[in-house]
Amino acid sequence: MFSSVAPRTNNFMIAERFETEAEIDATIDYIFTLRMKSTPVRLRTLKRPDAQRMYLLVKRR
Fold first, then answer.
1. How far apart are CA 29 and CA 42, in angstroms?
2. For the residues of 16-57, what is the DSSP string, one character each?
3. pLDDT computed for residue 5 by the predictor
4. pLDDT digits over 5-60, tens only?
5. CA torsion angle for 15, 21, 25, 31 (degrees, to 10)?
6. Is 5 helix (H, G, I), strand (E, B) or coil?
7. 45-49 — which CB contacts under 8 Å span 24+ positions?
8. Is the CB of residue 39 less than 8 Å from the CB of residue 31?
9. Which value, to the nearest 10 degrees, does the dihedral of the CA atoms of residues 18, 59, 38, 36 take?
10. Sign of the C-alpha dihedral computed for residues 20, 31, 37 and 33 taken in this order
């Protein structure tokens, strides 16, 4: 997902957390900058060990 759908989040702050942490419920202030005008966003990351899906929600600030 982080290389094809959401490449701007393919880094240690987002993608690595999904790989290494069993459970995540965090809100992160972030700035998208890859190949576009800098865009401040708020990311909500959700992951539970017993769920089949993980979520990465994006809201412009």
1. 5
2. HHHHH-S-EEEEEEEEE-TTS--EEEEEEEEE-TT-S--EEE
3. 80
4. 888 888 888 999 988 999 999 999 999 886 778 999 999 999 999 999 999 999 99
5. -20
6. coil
7. 45/14, 45/17, 45/18, 47/18, 47/21, 47/22, 47/23, 48/23, 49/22, 49/23
8. yes
9. 80
10. negative
| Residue 28 in tokens | 């992160």
Q: Report which secondary-structure segment, H or E, holds 15.
A: helix 15-20
pLDDT at 1 over 80: no
Q: Buried (b) or exposed (e) across 26-57, using 16+ Cβ within 10 A?
A: eeeebebeeeeeeeebebebebeeeeeeeebe
Tokens of 17: 């957390």
Which token pair is 47? 């992951």
